[in-house]
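Changelog-linked ticket: zinc ion example.
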Amino acid sequence: MQKGQITKALSGFYYVTDETKTIYQTRARGVFRNQNLTPLVGDYVEFESDNVQEGLIQKLLERKNELSRPPVANVDVGIIVMAATDPAFSTQLLDRFLVMLEAKHIIPYIVVTKMDLLTEAEKQLILSYQSDYQTIGYQMMLMEEAEDDRSEQLETLFKDRFSNQLLVFIGQSGAGKSTLLNVIDPSLELKVGETSRSLGRGKHTTRHVELIKVFDSLIADTPGFSALSFDEIEKEELSEYFPEMWDRRAECKFSGCLHVNEPKCAVKKAVSEGDIPEYRYADYVLFFEEIQNRKPRYKRKGESS
Ligand SMILES: Nc1nc2c(ncn2[C@@H]2O[C@H](COP(=O)(O)OP(=O)(O)O)[C@@H](O)[C@H]2O)c(=O)[nH]1
Ligand SMILES: [Mg+2]
Ligand SMILES: [Zn+2]
């Protein structure tokens, strides 16, 4: 049995790349369909093949995580692209992305674009956010204006931090994702200023997902998280996805403290003393209420009652 990773899915074929970087065109065993299992790009698989044109995937290995939009498994890093302005910088949107990545055990990395459009005073505000988020433990890179510096900055980032990682790009339309990817790999020739579901290389059908190799990383060619609701998160687990709150939970009076209405709460104390920014806590409460008020879900197939 051979082992590899699915790096592209197209028209019922799965392209599996093995350790030697050889790509095999394979199909999935019929048994997956009966078990309601769909191989995803990013899956590690066992397959059998006599030649690169034909092969059969026999087994899907366990997934670390999976996204539905784009349909990708085993994502390591989520690069959140946030514009400093146009569209306006929003800590609430950033916190939403961060929670979604944390819940999937994907390491967030924040890149702020359009710094060149800011006044000095506006720059100071972004720098204060950078300091807040780095204190929590998140990396936040502010993009230099000059094209040359940018590509150097990004090449270093990719080679030092993202080697052998599977990445997805996340961010609002207009945030600068395509622009950024073009700087990282000019051969992508992505159109900028266009709203498109895909990052835009080649012909796309809805069944087409491909991992693009950039330096030693793989990038999913479709931006992640088009839906921004917390459907899969329960309110009791939400504080796990705010690292600065999770770290303080042992100091709360009540075990299982949700940091909302409880007295002697270490999180609320940290907010009042300025150790946790008020906007972070406000977003926590907002998301908490969103989860609490969401409509009961219809039971999914396979869920017991
Ligand atoms: N001034 C400035 N404009 C930028 C920057 N990055 C992207 N843009 C512009 O923002 C618009 C949207 O960029 P695009 O890459 O298409 O965003 P996407 O929707 O996230 O892929 C385009 O007009 C880009 O030229 C930047 O760092 N500075
Ligand atoms: Mg784009
Ligand atoms: Zn608490």
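Closing comment: Example verified and attached. The radius of gyration is 21 Å. The chain is about 30% helix and 25% strand.
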